[in-house]
Amino acid sequence: GQNIDQPTEMTATEGAIVQINCTYQTSGFNGLFWYQQHAGEAPTFLSYNVLDGLEEKGRFSSFLSRSKGYSYLLLKELQMKDSASYLCAVTRAAGNKLTFGGGTRVLVKP
Amino acid sequence: GAVVSQHPSRVICKSGTSVKIECRSLDFQATTMFWYRQFPKQSLMLMATSNEGSKATYEQGVEKDKFLINHASLTLSTLTVTSAHPEDSSFYICSARGGKGRTYEQYFGPGTRLTVT
Questions:
Q1: Measured distance between the N- and C-terminal CA atoms of chain A, rounded to whole angstroms
Q2: pLDDT, tens digit, for every residue of A8-32?
Q3: Residue B56 scores a pLDDT above 60
Q4: Contacts A–B by Cβ distance under 8 A
């Protein structure tokens, strides 16, 4: 089976940094995705990690440790529009199905 | 980028009727399409995976006779909710894989909000 955990909610201040952690236990792990989803909308792709390490993309960075079954999404210079749910999802080697974690709702306050 | 559309965006139907939701890849050929369901304040749950020209593979607990999936072409997949009941009210989202460039990526449609009264 698969088990993917991430915090339910986080609150941060505009301009600050927030780190969203995701831990997983998945047999045949292939890669890990991060998606952003605003309420009532479809998820949008943020990042994809296959190898260990940090990948930076503008204000967003994603980190993966395969040995620890751990990833995080780092959001810098938070803006009000970053208020959304952030979904961690893993794929297994056998296919391309995405299994999502419960999602983390991030609220950015002025 | 790759664009996926869904139609309708919202639908209200009466209990016992059937509803069809279309998912189209507009500018690429989707070898695989996925159907998800999302209840309020919950994450996406995969319902089924469909490959063009073959039967869909359903996740455990999803009734294949209730949620009919057809993937007749490389750009179109349909989900039909048969004999809908209020508990089927949910946000249904499709995604498609097979776009140029990042072939590992799934491109999501805008979702269809189904309300069964």
A1: 41
A2: 999 999 999 999 999 999 888 999 9
A3: yes
A4: 48
Instruction: For tokens 């999502």, name the residue.
Output: A100
- Is A102 within 8 Å of B43 when comparing Cβ atoms? yes
**8-state DSSP, B89:** -
Q: Is the pLDDT of residue A96 over 90?
A: no
Give dist(CA A2, CA A38) in Å, integer: 25
| Closest partner CB to B111 (pick from A41, A101, A103) | A41
Asked whether the beta carbons of A73 and A23 are under 8 A apart, the reply is no
- Rounded to 10 degrees, the C-alpha dihedral A57/A59/A65/A71 comes to -120
- In chain B the beta strands, taken as DSSP E runs, fall at 4-7, 10-13, 19-25, 32-38, 45-51, 57-58, 67-73, 76-81, 90-97, 106-108, 112-116
Residues 6+ apart with CB under 8 A from A105: A8, A9, A10, A84, A85, B41
Q: Calculate the dihedral angle through the C-alpha atoms of A84, B79, B66, B68, rounding to the nearest 10 degrees.
A: -140
- Write the pLDDT tens digit of every residue in A60-79: 999 999 999 999 999 999 99
Which chain A residues have a beta carbon less than 8 Å from that of B45?
100
